[in-house]
Known about the structure:
Chain A is an alpha/beta fold. Helices cover 28% and strands 15% of the residues of chain A. Chain A is built from 5 helices and 7 strands.
Amino acid sequence: MSDQSQGDQKRGDDAQGDVLLRQFVNDIPVYDFDDTTFTKPRLLAEAQVAIVTTAGLRTDGDTYWTPGDQAFTEIPVDADKLALAHFSPNFDRSGFMADPEVVFPVKRLAELAADGTIGSVAPLHYSFMGAQPDHNLETMRLDSGPACAERLKRDGTDVVVLTPI
Amino acid sequence: MLAHVFEQAGLATVGLSSVRGQAERVHAPRMLHCEFPLGRPLGRPGDAKFQRGVLRAAFEMLEAPSGPVLLDYPEVIVDEQAEQLSCPLPPRHDGDSHPAVEEARGLRPAFERASENVLRSGFGKKLTADTVPDAVAAFVRIADGTPFEDADVPGGDLLAAGHDLRCYYEQAAMQLADHVPAARQTENWVYRQTETGKVIRAAAVAMKEAGVAQPLWFYLLPASQAD
């Protein structure tokens, strides 16, 4: 469905917002990797776990994330001033406003570490911004993504939980 | 995509999916599709037990001997998005101001009571609380036919101003409502029940009819709110 035809289609009370959006983005092209690397994980009860989200979260007091920017931000585990800087208007924001854990569940990980489900929570977590106009995501594939991976490994992380928005 | 990059670097990943068609085609090592409202990947705000359940289900995929693995979380959440948010709007006092401008001014106390949540809302790309009424007035001018480039939008960025107005209103609504709204209830309230939301929608229509390039009016609203 083109942007133009979507813009002309009557919506609002006639269709649930998420149904419409899922129809629109369901078939967006994705980069086709030649194969799927499957890393054997460390025992979860001994593993350090980090969150990497594509929600466009920042901790520097800025609420602006330029569309097309495929870089990442660093989020300390005890960060208390998270900004939802994602540029897209096409998802609910009130959930995050009420409870950031519904997007960035760092306290949930701490609870799972306390009950022995996971080994520990990483000191640093990371955020990219999704809904990128470049569906090949070349910068994220070849530059910022690998750079983030190296930081995660440097921090001692074994398992990454990926959350969308 | 990040799952592939991280696994190639030697990290194990578990991913939450919000759009199943994309998850099917990405072929990430381990994906848990969750049919939850977009914007709420862990499902229920304020429900720690539920959120831990989602994480536990994701971590269970680490036991799979090989991949790709794509599973569906068994519980589906479909919020009643069409149900109107019960949220009082300030009464009118100033008959000289446009109703939307006066409404925006009237919501400022509610907005400021939630000042610690400003960043969470995403407010502040270009506007401040002081410039919100000016931004609303600019959208009124655009809706009335003024070219957007001549409308004197604070900060000079129309899309950012539209985004900030939504965030301002949603933050005020979160303060005024006595419960955590269902997904998109505050969005629907902004664009269907408030004067400013109606003005923004009218401005988008005016820009479209004037032949303005699509991205500039299309992204003024969530796609679900356009006429």
